[in-house]
Amino acid sequence: MEFLTRTKWWAVPVIWLPVVCWLFAMSVRMGHTIQEVILMALFGVFVWTLIEYSLHRFLFHIETRSYWSNTAHYLIHGCHHKHPMDSLRLVFPPAGAAIICVPFWNVVAFFASPSTTPALFAGGLLGYVMYDCTHYYLHHGQPSKDPANHLKRYHLSHHFRIQDKGFGITSSLWDAVFGTLPSSKIAAKLS
Question: Which band of pLDDT confidence, cut at 50, 70 and 90, is reported for residue 185?
């Protein structure tokens, strides 16, 4: 099953950006203006940042005790922490993402109207694409300027210094909100 955890980074935007565009177009065809779709997309991206933080903190770093839960955890996220520079273990495989899209779509559809659901979901999906591409870049890119340089130091600190803090990948916003920013001493070193 481990081969299912390996994905080239470019597969994520190649597969999901056309879906994002199609979903935005659906909301436009259902009567929303471009400005409304942009606002829904921004809201979807914002919600994605909370989902990103929550998944990383509460699922990817869950304490496991049994053989099967340890194995599942390793396949989901542990292999990434064991091999953080493995370029094939930095983005979420599209097949797994497609499966997870179904319940997320249903949650959005429960709270939104039929015409706003596609744009809101597309915003979240766009946030996911941005997250995966950012995550890959933070591991393999060589940013020389902020904010990318800061994000790289922040994320690599999570990997190599203090793994129970700094769960945000694309932003430290939710770490600040929920008190999981690295200590000020470590944060000062990251600046």
Answer: very low
Task: Kindly report, residue by residue over 102-130, the tens digit of the pLDDT.
Answer: 999 999 999 999 999 999 999 999 999 99
pTM of the model: 0.84
3-state secondary structure of 3: helix
Structure tokens at 126: 């766009």
The domains of the chain are located at 2-131
* Cα distances (angstroms) measured from residue 77 to each of 39, 56, 100, 146: 32, 9, 16, 27
Task: Evaluate whether 60 touches 131 at the Cβ level (below 8 Å).
Answer: no
Residues in the chain: 191
How far apart, in whole angstroms, are the C-alpha atoms of residue 103 and residue 161? 34
Answer positive or negative: Cα dihedral of 59, 61, 65, 70. positive
Cα→Cα distances 117→5, 15, 70, 126, Å: 29, 20, 36, 14
Q: 60: exposed, middle or buried (C-beta count within 10 Å: 0-12, 13-18, 19+)?
A: middle
The tokens of 108 are what? 């959005």
